[in-house]
Amino acid sequence: MPKINFINSNKQLEVPEDSNILRMSLRYDGELPNRCGGGICGSCVFKAEEGAEFLDKVKVQERRKLGEEWLREGYRLGCQTFVTNGDISISWDDAFTEVVKKRKPDKLQKEVSTI
């Protein structure tokens, strides 16, 4: 089973594959800040310090709230992110969280359906 290392709270959790980062933090007191859980407020932003390759694909909500630059730097939203099949270490910064919360979402081009 993968492990999530919550650096700020000094907690390491063994979790089932495909577990949501925020839900695991709430369930096991990982202390990741949070408010809405829907990818809108940005309060659960974290940085993948290690193991970013073991996180699932970036969601539309994350692209809108964080933008491509912050995503490239390893930032993700805990409410939208799932750990796949490896260990990860995450951290968060309260000052940066406030910046993210105040950021207006990017407007994305309409996605073309390939159905």
From TrEMBL:
Sequence ranges assigned to domain 2Fe-2S ferredoxin-type in this UniProt record: 2-96
Database matches in Pfam families: Fer2
A molecular function (GO) term: 2 iron, 2 sulfur cluster binding
Protein name from the UniProt record: (2Fe-2S)-binding protein
High-level lineage: Bacteria, Bacillati, Bacillota, Bacilli, Bacillales
Highest taxon listed in the record's lineage: Bacteria
